[in-house]
Amino acid sequence: MRWTEIDQQLCSVARALSVVGERWTLLILRDAFLGTRRFEQFQHNLGITRHRLSERLSKLVEQGVLVKVPYNERPLRHEYRLTRKGLGLYPVLMSLARWGDDWMTGEEGVTLQYVHRSCGKVTRPLLACSECGEPLRPEGVMPQPGPSLQVIADDLAKEGRRNVPIPELIGRSRPQE
Amino acid sequence: MRWTEIDQQLCSVARALSVVGERWTLLILRDAFLGTRRFEQFQHNLGITRHRLSERLSKLVEQGVLVKVPYNERPLRHEYRLTRKGLGLYPVLMSLARWGDDWMTGEEGVTLQYVHRSCGKVTRPLLACSECGEPLRPEGVMPQPGPSLQVIADDLAKEGRRNVPIPELIGRSRPQE
């Protein structure tokens, strides 16, 4: 499979990466979450070529992660704002930041810290269960086929292939409509 | 700045991406979290070239995300297991999966669902505050300079540059030792 085809995979991680998995894209979004909105600011902060930045921003707009909003009429100028879909990537970025803080920081200490406004404390974001609120750890979570994967598993079972491991199933392409 | 230099950035997200930001790397880790351990299985599931897979796995071993463990003596064969550092990426992958489920899934329904063993329910993983346990949303969290960024901000203030925006600060390279 080619990288450009991963949007066809059943796996949700692969489909998410088909939108945010290119080099620089997650750093552009990090900047957007920290308040950057204008092309020149992104370029100044990231130090990438205008061509590459433009290509990445266009794709994020096309995918509905950012929206282009005019902030000046004459001359016409736009800025880029996170949509609801874009804001939904907050846990991805905070989890990457947390991992970087935990595993790639020396004695100099963390770069940013995060104050949770409602409780007033410095927070270390973690992954929690939507049902009981407890932290989620890999050994405490059991993945099982959801509706779309079950269809594939049932089809394979009809061909005599039972108990195909989940990683093999989710790497498959989605059935064509 | 070149992509190969992002490990030098102050930003924790950039440093995390210097380890896991290459194409395929997060999909290899997704497979590892789902139980894949052997080279041939990774290759079968992902359908990438042996050369690329080998390069990605070596980098993850070098960075301490995976460890190579012998499972057979004659002939000598190794498998790849997640280290503690690797297990720390669980929230990154689950957040990507959740976003893919929320925003990139059609009527066919989600691919995988996740049962939280301790409460027994199907969970939808969310980002929560380590201090009060409430869900974290971008508008409820205030980023502020941590120790290492404060040093840079203070140096700039001495040069007369005060109130440099955070996205500009964290895009800078770390001071050389």
Please outline the helices and strands.
Two copies of one chain form a homodimer.
Chain A: H1 12-20, H2 25-33, H3 39-46, H4 50-62, E1 66-72, E2 77-82, H5 84-87, H6 90-103, E3 112-116, E4 122-123, E5 126-128, E6 141-145, H7 147-158, H8 166-170
Antiparallel strand pairs in A: 1-2, 3-4
How would you characterize this protein structure?
The structure is a homodimer of 177-residue chains. Chain A has 177 residues and is of the alpha+beta class. Helices cover 42% and strands 16% of the residues of chain A. Chain A is built from 8 helices and 6 strands, in the order ααααββααββββαα. A two-stranded antiparallel sheet of chain A has the order 1-2. A two-stranded antiparallel ribbon of chain A has the order 3-4. The first copy, chain A, is globular and about 65 Å long. Chain A starts with 11 loop residues before the first helix and ends in a 7-residue tail after the last helix. The model of chain A has no long low-confidence stretch (mean pLDDT 94).
